[in-house]
Amino acid sequence: MRFSVVHTTRYRYGAPVHLEPHTFRLRPRDDGSQRLLRYALAISPAPAGQATLLDREGNVVTQAWFSGPIESLQVRSEFEVETLRENPFDFLLAQSDRQLPVIQGDGTVAEFARSIAEAANHQTLPFLTSLSQTLNRRVRQILRREGPPLAAEATLAAAEGSCRDLAVLFCDACRAAGLAARFVSGYERDASLQENGELHAWAEVYFEGGGWRGFDPSRGLAVADSHIAVAASIEPYLAAPVSGTFRGASASTMDFQISIQVQG
């Protein structure tokens, strides 16, 4: 499946401000599950300097620094990606990964994970499938464009949350069950049906023999070729598309526009 995406974000400030160095995590991954065919990043006003690098999580990011006061900042990411993985389970599960350990610990998330694990007979893939489907079924999904993800306990108690809230809850439930999990930000096919698309968030779980594999509790499925992964991290804030601060006595506003076109 081939995707063409244009993502523009604008920050406006009530008075001129000085930007501290910013990090942009907008370049899609290029790996065994997707191929990056074209990518361009435009920042206005032009930075005083910028560098592309590999961060500690393995994401390709751009760091930029600025000079002089500014009243607005615009970031435009444009790319084309071909997703390759039609079967999300095209790997051999190592013997050590097939059975979950007995879940220890207290708290609502551990208890929730324990109930899912027991129903799945402590089998890893049935646990992950049931966890994703249960969250999709039980948690009412809401659109919350700003703010960090809520704590897993808060989302579980409220039984509602955004895609990033569900991703954090999924990760914490996996960790309670002894599985390595991380937060992923990117885009997915359903957003192409909207006039103005949205960023999306899901989770990845690590398997010996399978590497990092995606699970999307917002959709209740294992991730195949309908998702475009951009950045991943154990800490959600390290997968944010843009991060940075500014100096100045001013408030800021943000708006964005995402256009996603799908072929095949």
Key features?
264 residues, five-stranded antiparallel beta sheet, alpha+beta, 41% strand
What does this structure look like?
The chain has four helices and 16 strands. It is an alpha+beta fold and 264 residues long. α3 links the parallel β7 and β8 (160-161). The longest helix has 15 residues, at 124-138. The radius of gyration is 19 Å and the shape is globular. It starts with a strand and ends with a strand. The model has no long low-confidence stretch (mean pLDDT 94).
Give the gist of this structure.
This protein is α+β, with helices and mostly antiparallel strands. The protein contains four helices and 16 strands.
Describe the secondary-structure layout.
Blueprint lengths: L1 E18 L2 E3 L9 E11 L4 E6 L5 E6 L4 E14 L24 H12 L4 H15 L1 E2 L10 H7 L1 E2 L1 H14 L4 E8 L11 E8 L3 E6 L4 E2 L4 E7 L8 E2 L2 E2 L4 E12 L1
Parallel strand pairs: 7-8
Antiparallel strand pairs: 1-6, 1-15, 1-16, 2-5, 2-14, 3-6, 4-5, 9-10, 9-13, 10-11, 11-12
Helix pairs in contact: 1-2, 1-4, 2-4, 3-4
